């Protein structure tokens, strides 16, 4: 039970003043408890979560495109079935995340509109092309690998619906990472041409994967506040370093060279060379190799799917009318 400003007990927290609600929110964050949709929350906390969860959801569904590009060309029926399942998983992740964002009071249609009009971002990584089959392995190994390192801490995010959605997403991403590694491991034991294809894919995906973690800490405007609110648990650079430390020994198993001449082991960590932040900034501004193609494809899929949304709405209306008639 909570007390108001006069020390009187209050059962219904909605009767508390803003200062008391803020105090209660701060206590929950300090105690590492979860904030739930009906709890009071500062406007900035809500706004930050909507931005991050929406960007995350958009990334999942835009992220379906580079891999879907290879479903018809997968080298065997088994590979096709696995890739199809993985791409469907990404659609599911998008749905959980849009659902989590909706608990904060935004409409999914509004978020779609923000994506389609370029007013909300999605991950920079999905603006690069998938040129060969080895890219399916590299995406699983590096992109899903980076996603796991970034997202496992989000299972402890202070906002309950986001944290709970992340638990299942991370389990599935872990399967995705292994299937990518397995594709590359198979190629690593194949012909010379397959080995070259593997090395070429790793050369192209390594640096964009490091950029997925976001700008360096001293240029990350949102990190400090997001960490104070328990939305983010680690800084961008800490997670990036964790990913590099995890991935270098795996590259040795695959027998590939990571495209960084400055990579060296020092004081318990693999230190990496400078990241091309100008390239990252250009991709965020819409000037990556595939930005335009990704958004055009997404808009078209949305328009082509209008009849499905209309049919679902008409069916729901019919069901409601039927149950109302039944009640009368
Ligand atoms: N790309 O101040 P910070 C996946 C933006 S899902 C584009 O550091 P923050 C699954 C940032 O939004 C991959 N934009 O921001 C999969 C902010 O924008 P603002 C997606 C980026 O939020 C695998 C500005 O820059 N994962 O891969 C990027 O504190 C395979 C300043 O940055 C998530 O979304 C970027 N890489 O930290 C699917 C995870 N980095 O303020 C298919 C959840 C930063 O102008 C196939 N998100 N920006 O609106 C997060 O953990 C955080 O939002 C960060 C950024 C770490 C991404």
From TrEMBL:
<dbReference type="InterPro" id="IPR011881">
    <property type="entry name" value="PaaA"/>
</dbReference>
<protein>
    <submittedName>
        <fullName>Ring-1,2-phenylacetyl-CoA epoxidase subunit PaaA</fullName>
        <ecNumber>1.14.13.149</ecNumber>
    </submittedName>
</protein>
<dbReference type="InterPro" id="IPR007814">
    <property type="entry name" value="PaaA_PaaC"/>
</dbReference>
<dbReference type="InterPro" id="IPR012347">
    <property type="entry name" value="Ferritin-like"/>
</dbReference>
<dbReference type="InterPro" id="IPR052703">
    <property type="entry name" value="Aromatic_CoA_ox/epox"/>
</dbReference>
<keyword id="KW-0560">Oxidoreductase</keyword>
<dbReference type="Pfam" id="PF05138">
    <property type="entry name" value="PaaA_PaaC"/>
</dbReference>
<dbReference type="InterPro" id="IPR009078">
    <property type="entry name" value="Ferritin-like_SF"/>
</dbReference>
<dbReference type="GO" id="GO:0097266">
    <property type="term" value="F:phenylacetyl-CoA 1,2-epoxidase activity"/>
</dbReference>
């Amino acid at each position: 039970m909570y007390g108001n400003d006069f020390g009187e007990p209050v059962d219904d927290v909605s009767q508390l003043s803003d200062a008391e609600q803020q105090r209660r929110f701060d206590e929950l964050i300090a105690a590492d408890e979860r904030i739930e949709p009906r709890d009071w929350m500062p406007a900035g906390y809500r706004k930050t979560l909507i931005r991050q969860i929406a960007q995350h959801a958009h990334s999942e569904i835009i992220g379906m495109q580079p891999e879907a590009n290879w479903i018809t060309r997968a080298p065997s029926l088994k590979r096709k079935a696995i890739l199809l399942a993985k791409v469907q998983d990404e659609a599911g992740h998008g749905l959980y995340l849009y659902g989590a964002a909706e608990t904060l009071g935004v409409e999914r249609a509004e978020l779609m509109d923000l994506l389609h009009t370029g007013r909300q971002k999605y991950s920079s990584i999905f603006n690069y092309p998938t040129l060969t089959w080895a890219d399916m392995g590299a995406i699983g190994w590096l992109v899903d690998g980076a996603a796991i390192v970034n997202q496992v801490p989000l299972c402890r995010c202070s906002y309950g619906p986001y944290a709970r959605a992340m638990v299942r997403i991370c389990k599935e991403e872990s399967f995705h990472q292994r299937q990518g590694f397995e594709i590359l491991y198979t190629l690593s034991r194949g012909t010379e041409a397959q080995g070259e294809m593997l090395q070429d894919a790793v050369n192209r995906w390594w640096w964009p994967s490091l950029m997925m973690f976001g700008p360096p800490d001293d240029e990350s405007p949102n990190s400090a506040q997001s960490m104070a609110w328990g939305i983010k648990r680690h800084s961008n650079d800490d997670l990036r370093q964790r990913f590099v430390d995890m991935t270098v020994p795996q590259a040795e198993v695959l027998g590939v060279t990571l495209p960084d001449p400055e990579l060296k082991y020092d004081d318990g960590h693999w230190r990496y060379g400078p990241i091309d932040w100008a390239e990252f900034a250009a991709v965020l501004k819409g000037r990556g190799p595939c930005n335009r193609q990704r958004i055009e494809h997404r808009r078209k899929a949305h328009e082509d799917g209008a009849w499905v949304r209309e049919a679902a709405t008409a069916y729901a209306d019919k069901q409601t009318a039927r149950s109302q008639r039944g009640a009368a």
